[in-house]
Amino acid sequence: MSLKRFLFMPRTPLNHVLCGWAQAAAAIGDQWSILIVRDAFKGVKTFSAFQKSIGVSKGVLSRRLEHLVASGILAKAPVGLGASHSEYSLTPKGKALLPAMLALAQWSDKWVFGEGNEPYVVVDALNQAPVPPLEVRAQDGRRVELEDLTILPGPGCPKSEP
Question: Is the pLDDT of residue 13 over 60?
Answer without folding.
Answer: yes
